[in-house]
Specification:
Number of domains: 2
Strand content: 25-35%
Largest sheet: 9 strands, antiparallel
Distance between the termini: 61 Å
Helix content: 25-40%
Order of helices and strands: EEHEEEEEEEEEHEEEEEEEEEHHH
Structural class: alpha+beta
Number of helices: 5
Radius of gyration: 31 Å
């Protein structure tokens, strides 16, 4: 059961609440009954169900990750064996039609990208308009104090005005009436993309353009045509820049894939290296025998070998990251499912410590073994011998423990 009251900023001692120095602030105090052993066990059953769900999902993540990893590795091997290097990106070689090719060259677009609202214009593959809105932000800190059969909960709230690029709903605030935000941005963020993008004479399809994502901040030096928009220090404002109000917008820009002429004021166009299928004069995705699409674009001048090796390294890093994440999810799932035992003995400190240690070792061992078995099953179709070896490694600790147990039993009989 909860009971609560609120101390407002004009209460004594409210000048520095919970470490807050300034702003609209107050403290809410509430009380709840300390849960009984039965309540804690019932909460643990709910945690056990959550743990079961996490445990099941971890199997899916581990198994799917191995399938993805081996499919990617196979596709990259095939790519390296089939790719045809093209020395001159300004020439279209019809004999390479529908084949996997590698080219390197400067990005090129046929017209500049322009935001008509502010007049910002740039010769690039992408121009991104980023928008922030001046909004109320709620900060809170909670402290729990045990008091006999009750727990006192003190929550400090403070509201500040900040520039945010995501919409903050004031309806979810503890005190929304005095801190209301707009329900939508006055200006929408957007990304302009060049319709026609080339490397030499080769036209890039949408999949390759989507890979041009290295955005660089851009500071325009032009005044906006709209008199309601102010330009100050490289940014555009819908209100007064020095004294913004809640609901005002601030606009900044960035670009990706510089593609202007060699004399362009931002520097030369970006050089990119591409591995993709030539379809006439277009570059698009190539379907490998492992049913994976190959469509690679890297910044800089790279050989096909270097590009493939970079992809192999990225695939390895992602595979190990997901393996670690899947194992941790499995461990947490087991922890939540076995935590009920801790609850049952929580009133005996020494027993609780011993049981907690034993369960932790058990959960670590089981999660490691099951993770390794799941990973090996993911490789079984592609590398059966490796899969069998991994299963043997995973089961070794259990087999050793079983053999030792049998020997102890025999010794006790003797």
């Amino acid at each position: 059961m909860y009971r609560s009251r609120v101390r407002y900023p004009d209460d004594p001692g409210m000048h520095n609440v919970g470490g807050f120095q300034d702003g609209d602030k107050y403290t809410k105090v509430s009380y709840k009954e300390n849960p009984s052993l039965l309540d804690r066990i019932s909460q643990t059953f709910a945690g056990g169900l959550l743990g079961l769900g996490i445990f099941v999902v971890s199997f899916f993540i581990l198994f799917a990750n191995e399938g993805r990893a081996v499919q990617t590795a196979t596709a990259l091997e095939e790519c390296l064996s089939l790719v045809i290097p093209v020395e001159n990106s300004n020439m279209i070689y019809q004999e390479n039609n529908n084949k996997l090719i590698h080219i390197t060259g400067y990005l090129r677009t046929d017209q500049a990208l322009k935001d008509g609202m502010t007049g910002v214009e740039i010769q690039a593959v992408k121009l991104r308009r980023e928008v922030e809105m001046y909004q109320w932000v709620e900060h809170k800190r909670t402290r729990e104090i045990k008091e006999n059969k009750q727990t006192k909960i003190e929550t400090d709230f403070m509201y500040t005005k900040e520039w945010k690029n995501n919409l903050i709903s004031s309806d979810l605030f503890d005190n929304p009436h005095r801190h209301q935000n707009q329900r939508e941005f006055p200006i929408k963020p957007t990304t302009y993309v060049a319709v026609h993008t080339y490397v030499g004479s080769y036209y890039l399809k949408e999949g390759l353009k989507a890979k041009i994502e290295e955005f660089i901040s851009y500071t325009p030096k032009t005044n906006p045509p709209d008199p309601n928009i102010k330009y100050v220090d490289g940014r555009f404002y819908t209100g007064m820049p020095r004294t913004p109000q809640v609901g005002d917008a601030r606009i900044t820009y960035s670009y990706a894939g510089l593609s202007g002429p060699q004399t362009y004021h931002l520097g030369p166009p970006n050089i990119v290296s591409i591995i993709a299928k030539q379809s006439g004069s277009q570059l698009t995705k190539y379907q490998t025998q492992s049913e994976m699409a190959i469509e690679l674009l890297h910044y800089g001048e790279k050989t096909a070998d270097e590009m493939v090796q970079d992809e192999v390294d990225a695939n390895t890093a992602l595979t190990w990251l997901l393996r670690a994440g899947g194992w941790f999810m499995m461990f947490m799932g087991l922890y939540l499912m076995t935590n009920i035992i801790n609850r049952l003995v929580s009133w005996i400190p020494l027993v609780r410590t011993l049981v907690s240690f034993g369960l932790t070792v058990f959960n670590l061992t089981v999660s490691f073994t099951l993770s390794l078995i799941t990973i090996s099953l993911g490789w079984f179709y592609y590398r059966p011998l490796m899969a069998i070896a991994l299963i043997a490694v995973a089961l070794t600790p259990s087999i050793i423990t079983y053999i030792r147990g049998q020997r102890k039993s025999e010794d006790n009989r003797v």
